[in-house]
């Protein structure tokens, strides 16, 4: 745990240069606009500890899988989010000295990520070895409005000298992924061009053949006037630059504006990429930095209006939740249904791939409640478009007749994870994709989605489950052997309760959806079942037989569901019995010891009770929570949020708050000692859930929207915004009362602590809370 | 399955050049003497399909482990058997044409591995592109008598031309392992020297720092007289040669003798390696090829006298069993207790490492019965010397107080496998090491071994088992969770019956051994328990409690042991139900499908019933055999032999013969399509077991030695030799009778088909067999 970031409600602030933590700060201060993104690297040369990172959404490399012994069915590659050309670079040379914060004295250093307006700012004074002092200010952002562009305002002021200063803005494509499996380079150069103040380079990814053209245009001002500089074009292998030498006087500010774009062949014809880049550059250069920044602030203000959360009385918590919301908004905008939410977003390259079940289980509810309905819908359509690949994936594993197994992680629908115990066995992910359809329809009421897309996916997933179970003559029930549940501290177990449950639930929901679609649009239904050869009677009766005869491991004594068969053979003990210094377990215990222990990485049975809470009473939840939570080490970033929500529901307010803290400032405080690799983007949605579903007690069911809000001790108030079926609401909770404000024209009926409340358009209601649940 | 090798009782014969099968033939025709070895490569240049392979026992490289995600406790490296300098090379150039069987016409090609005398011979006529015809004969061997030397007689005869022929004998250290994890080279050059007709090169392995000096001396004869040739020394990076150009006349035979040595720093001071190599070369050159070959034949005759098996009436079976015995004798001689029996011996480099549990479970009984007692003892001492490393290995996994876990595979005692489900979980190997001690003492009667070495190892292994089990409150028994049994088509299972059984057996045997050692030598016992802090009373009572309360999964209905907990949840079906074209499963089914299926790779419960047959009655064996064998796919080379032995015991003679055929000609017929990687050396010991313990029914128990021999249908006779406590016996079985011949002075009492028989020194007895069991 590190706490060098200054607490501030709207900004992430590094006061003074924390050289050793630079990679952490770079992760935290990442910028993105859903299309391009980058880590908070320095523009000028830096020879110290840094992880250069620039990313273009959707562009990946299929890195050959690294395994000890190949086993049949293994994916060929593990998709890497590609580290793309560095377009922020501006080298500064003062006569024969390079500006490099690793080799000069640094004073008055301040780096600020302004979350309200969406830009990164940095200022410092550097004393070079020669004694020359240079003041630097930089400000940059990835534009939301021009979402393939980034722009930098970089100013230098000699404080105690006059000199010729050489300024070298460049684009550098000689980058590598730090985690490349075989140390390969992933990019080839296609072409490069330079012109006065401009430079372009087009690179192509190996194997996948994506083209990305990066371009830049440089303008310079001195004394508030544009400078007509001389520039020397420089071209190396995969590198273009313009070298500009200027006379700079003591006290005079020289401002460099660097306009940059990154266009990919995902969105343009690859033959015209450089031409398009040039036009794009010309357009944004005409618009100018100030106008672009103004638009950026407006765009962020619009976002915050929709999904800000305010916490009064706890700056750390306020900063934490805003940071999470900010990063989620930077990562995914929902504008492009081909994209998804990578585990590190644009903040790092670890894990690779872009889509895990995190999207459906954690991120979807965030976007459902905070963005336009089409954003969540696009997340669903993304999977619909991968259905054929999911069917092929299941075929590779021996399934047939249209059964689909969605991949554990993917870029294009193909499986690209690299461990058999995950790839082949962590199949509960398939259930999460079905659940997301249910979640979306429940929240939006958009049942037509089932007609157009949802049912086809549900049938394919149900076909998988129907084939994946087998009849145990011994138990006289269906069993599911050899799976890995959400708790990845177990592998290859039998009858994981969560997996069995979500499998049977999928079958039930599919049967229900068949009925709905038949009723809503018999013609489309007839077309669908014909196209996918759905034998309604037989497939439904098989599904029903499995639903009716599924095995659910259960402990009669404790009246709890068992995480898996044989769970009670383990040496059961609470996490508090683990000797000090042995946690986190994954850094201290050998893997086999973790596997055979009772300790749980993240919610497993409790994940099921979270998803399907309507099907279990509170006593059941309490018994299972009391049994499992004490054995849970929460070594997944996705764990504390679910437990926080459930603790809130059970009225265990201290536990809820403890779990909330573990999730909200996970990256800001580098809780797991791994923020240098990038931020935990998908778990940030979990943090939001812990607030809105936990403290806010928000639920949506057949009766509509409801809340059971409370304010954790020490907070004066908590306010969050929700979009629900065209209505924008703000729910504000204090220790005394709950106020629901309706920003929309239409009235809405909802429940607060079980009591119905009608809130007219553009008005608000306050309810005094007598007693917290 | 390929059947291009000519059947012959004493030779492995390739008639005509089988270009596409060359790598298979190279594996089959490998040479070795326990110290150095090599594949059956060509001496002259060959640009076709070939796997160059030269190996020096004990010299390895710790190749960085290749894993997708690192997990705590993983071994750092997977040890590779190193492909060492190629010392056989002799390039032949006829004016401007190279002799290369890939580019010229080949006639009268014949390659023969002479197993009786231990050499490889090859002859052919090559027609070069120019039409020149060259006749070549080569003969080479790795000397048993001078066991760091190899020698080649290579003769060329122009058939239709006179020409200057350039002969370039060389040593080439620019070799790589084909299966290097990261395509690295493993050798650096230290020095090289050339002199008239001689050349030396010293290489050093990276990381491990082994030095190996290879040297050669070349003599040439024409018209039966030594030629005083001119030679041009050639030195490249890691390469030395002498280029010799001679006038050769049509019909004139030019004979090249190449004497070579490979000395390693395992046996010599690395500073004087080249000097030692030079002296060694001089010595063998003085001895000369013919004398060396004479000695080689003598040495092999001595070996065959001890362990030949003859089968009359079935040449394929005869060739198969001799090939297996021959390769085992080439791989391991027992002279050096630092060495062991690699899975591929000197025939290839796949799998890496030198020592698996194969050594204890399969190879030890072969050497016990066919070699001097010290050979088997050295195999045990090898593990004794690794005890400290095994304790460290267990410590890495969280065990303490002197608990030892022997590695799944090793070179120097350290674990160097690379899959968690094997490294961490296939812990039954630890039991095999205890069992080998029992097996050795039972066979030899050498109880003092327990005093000096055995007990210390047993206590350390027992400490591991005592900590590895845990008490299940649910079962009120000890359980062992998260293991992989011998059947590697299951991973991470609970209560593998075999593992639970061998664990409890180890504890029982350790308690028994404590008693024995206390009685045999109280002083040494006192020293030992003091040195290893053995708390006799407490540790024995813990062990006894585990022995008395171990859980053994059992099916009450079928009265069979269950391979593991939940085995009966599987969809049980015989192998014969697998659709055609889907076998072998490991090449057709995805890994998860294999894991959750009932299909068994190799004996698991049946391995236990094989090891501990005295503890179970024949009906129990029959019930378990009838239950498990039909579900067994035998996709491990170690599987058929155990089943053959048990089928013999159960009187299932057809099954026994079917299983024998699968093991005996596994490599000769390339049964598993993988002989090109090298031969399955350790399973060859299993073949021997299938003959001697299966068809021969040999057993050793407290009552001594016994046999229940029978002759499979179609065989006229089967004869095998056995050494037992100083006595050399031959057991000959026909369809009618059994003859036991005693070649030793001392008489021996044994049982044949249950009937006691006393055989005086240097005599024989024949028993007529009325009815086969």
Automatic annotation (TrEMBL), chains A, B:
Q: Per UniProt, where does substrate bind?
A: 357-358, 601-602
Family annotation (Pfam families): Glyco_hydro_65C (PF03633), Glyco_hydro_65m (PF03632), Glyco_hydro_65N (PF03636)
Superkingdom classification of source = Bacteria
SUPFAM superfamilies assigned:
Galactose mutarotase-like (SSF74650), Six-hairpin glycosidases (SSF48208)
Q: Where is the active site?
A: 488 (proton donor)
Domain Glycoside hydrolase family 65 C-terminal residues, every copy: 698-757
InterPro entries given for it?
6-hairpin_glycosidase_sf (IPR008928), 6hp_glycosidase-like_sf (IPR012341), Gal_mutarotase_sf_dom (IPR011013), GH65_N (IPR037018), Glyco_hydro_65_C (IPR005194), Glyco_hydro_65_M (IPR005195), Glyco_hydro_65_N (IPR005196), Malt_Pase/Glycosyl_Hdrlase (IPR017045)
Q: Provide a GO biological process annotation.
A: carbohydrate metabolic process
Name all Glycoside hydrolase family 65 central catalytic domain ranges: 322-688
Q: List GO molecular-function terms, semicolon-separated.
A: carbohydrate binding; glycosyltransferase activity; hydrolase activity, hydrolyzing O-glycosyl compounds
Domain named Glycoside hydrolase family 65 N-terminal: which ranges?
Answer: 13-265
- What protein family does this chain belong to? Belongs to the glycosyl hydrolase 65 family.
* Record-given protein name: Maltose phosphorylase
Origin organism of this chain? Spirosoma montaniterrae
